[in-house]
Specification:
The protein is of the alpha+beta class and 224 residues long. It has helices spanning 2-38, 63-81, 120-123, 142-158, and strands at residues 47-52, 55-60, 85-94, 100-110, 170-178, 200-208, 212-220. The chain has a single domain (2-220), classed as Cell Cycle, Spindle Assembly Checkpoint Protein, Chain A (2-Layer Sandwich), CATH 3.30.900.10. Keywords: Cell cycle, Cell division, Mitosis, Nucleus.
Length: 224
């Protein structure tokens, strides 16, 4: 009887971790769309308003952008559930100069990961790496988690007050830092970190669940 009970507990934990992973992946989806809208990477008329997290969110209605984000999210969801992700980065690049002008970084800490070794990519980027043995956070209600997520999106929206206005046409790329042993689809390729040269950094808010913590940082080019 006790053995069966332990198995049941294991199943419950896995379900909780899966739910938390999907919540984080969904947060990344809305974060990418919000950054593209707020930073004017695409015209405002290319976005559709939806209700999420108790807020009015804007998501891209451009077919190419939607397809790109969908492809990312499809793989990201699998990697998140597998505990393979340490970081997601959205890089905005000038089409005219090829210079990276903004870099939005979301660092992921995974609790109760069972002491797995970090990836080679994470080891190579120790400055921004998540602690390997982070202590789990206390249980949180859905309302508490939503409130923390709301605060992040409000900060992203308010970022226009301190970020330099983007000049000319821009494009974006999404980088995912996955463990070295992750299964990587053929269409994904290795990339450099696309850091901002001599940029300023601003730490934004974080949110956490019982199983994950996500920290947010934006780097931007200083206009002389």
């Amino acid at each position: 009887m006790s053995v069966e009970r332990e198995k049941d507990k294991s199943k419950v934990h896995k379900l909780q971790l899966k739910g938390s992973s999907r919540l984080v992946a969904e947060f990344f989806n809305y974060s990418i769309n919000t950054i593209l809208f707020q930073r004017g990477v695409y015209p405002a008329e290319d976005f559709t308003a939806v209700k999420k997290y108790g807020l009015t969110m804007l998501i891209s209605s451009d077919d190419q952008v939607k397809a790109y984000i969908k492809k990312i999210m499809s793989q990201l969801d699998k990697w998140m559930i597998g505990g393979k992700i340490s970081k997601l980065v959205v890089v905005i690049t000038s089409k005219d100069t090829g210079e990276h002008v903004e870099r939005w970084q979301f660092d992921v800490q995974i609790f109760n990961k069972g002491g797995k070794k970090g990836s080679s990519k994470r080891s190579a980027d120790k400055e921004n790496a998540a602690p390997e043995d982070a202590a789990p956070t206390p249980e949180k209600t859905d309302a508490e988690i939503q409130s923390e997520i709301q605060s992040i999106f409000r900060q992203i929206t308010a970022s226009v007050t301190f970020l330099p206005q983007l000049e000319g046409d821009c494009t974006f790329n999404v980088l995912v830092y996955a463990d070295a042993d992750s299964d990587v689809p053929m269409e994904w390729c290795d990339s450099d970190a696309k850091e901002i040269k001599n940029g300023e950094k601003v730490q934004l808010r974080s949110f956490s669940t019982t199983n994950h913590k996500v920290d947010t940082l934006v780097s931007y080019r200083v206009v002389s």
